[in-house]
Amino acid sequence: MTLPAWLAAVNFNADGLIPAIAQDDVSGRILMMAWMNAESLQLTAQTQTAVYFSRSRGKLWHKGESSGHTQRVHDIRLDCDADVIVLSVTQAGGIACHTGRESCFYQRLDLSGQTPEWQTVDKVLKDPAEIYTSHKTGNASPQVHAATSQDIINATAHTNDNGSTNHSILQQLDHVLAERKQADADSSYVASLYAKGLNKILEKVGEESTESIIAAKDFANCDKNIDEAQYNAARHELIYEVADVWFHTLVGLAWFDIESEAVLSELGRRFGLSGIDEKAAR
Q1: How is 156-167 classified by DSSP, letter by letter?
Q2: CB atoms within 10 A of CB 234
Q3: Is 179 exposed, middle or buried (0-12, 13-18, 19+ CB in 10 A)?
């Protein structure tokens, strides 16, 4: 298909994508960065609402489709190398980030001490669990997944001098989840779950379990020989959803002060037993 002249002038990368930065039309603050392909950029221009391309899902992503936080586009600009797009937008709800903050760029590098340290400088304006539960429709994948990512990043960031982790990821998660029990509800996604109580945590376990089932069924319908890109995207989505199930289950265990080691020990006890023997031993 021949692209119109204005799209042909855009320098998309080898994957057919270009980074797109959204900034507030009034304040000029950078709200988020995502990717666009030719189709999403064309739709953005036509509808004057932000449409991006999800690399993990391999499909178009209409900003706000699962949160309600759409972006009205006032201006589209291209940089001098034609390889970066800047959008001037009005952000619906004043929240662009999946963590419930105004901007995705809410961490600031503090250089005042001997060692630089990232600090969270923006407050959560709305609990992401509320955002995506109330606006989810059909099979659309909620953007809340990444709300857990900072807790996971913090858990896996502790390394020793040679770069290896001091503990297993599960042990590090146990430590972080225990810490979050004492944290302010606005400081992290997990802390907000604790503040809402056990029922909310269990609700998330059930919700993520359902999404993993849907992802598994979608993956089962993919054929790598017919569409490898779709196959890989569906495989990634299944892994992503199962990780969410595991993560929220660990939060549930932490509520009761049960560490992941207890589950691993139980699995270890079962390992080596036949299914019949294991069931009889229960």
Answers
A1: H--B-TTS-BSS
A2: 22
A3: middle
* Of 124, 45, 120, nearest in space to 78 by CA: 45
Find the helix or strand (DSSP H, E) in which 62 lies: strand 59-62
Q: Whole-angstrom Cα distance, residue 252 to residue 204? A: 10
In the 8-state DSSP scheme, what is residue 147?
A: G
Residue pair 71/48 in contact by the 8 Å Cβ criterion: no
Place of tokens 């503090």: 110
Amino acid 102 reads E
Classify strands 107-110 and 59-62 as parallel, antiparallel or unpaired: unpaired
Residues in the chain, total? 282
What are 215's two structure tokens?
Answer: 């992802």
The Cα 208–Cα 214 span in angstroms is: 10
Tens-level pLDDT at each residue, the chain (282 residues): 688 999 999 999 999 999 999 999 989 999 999 999 999 999 999 999 999 999 888 889 899 887 889 999 999 999 999 999 999 999 998 999 988 899 999 999 989 988 998 899 898 888 877 776 655 444 333 333 333 444 544 444 444 444 444 347 788 888 889 988 888 887 778 888 999 999 999 999 999 899 899 989 999 999 988 888 888 888 888 988 898 899 999 999 999 999 999 998 888 888 776 556 655 665
Partners of residue 73 on adjacent β-strands: 89
Cα end-to-end distance, the chain, whole Å: 63
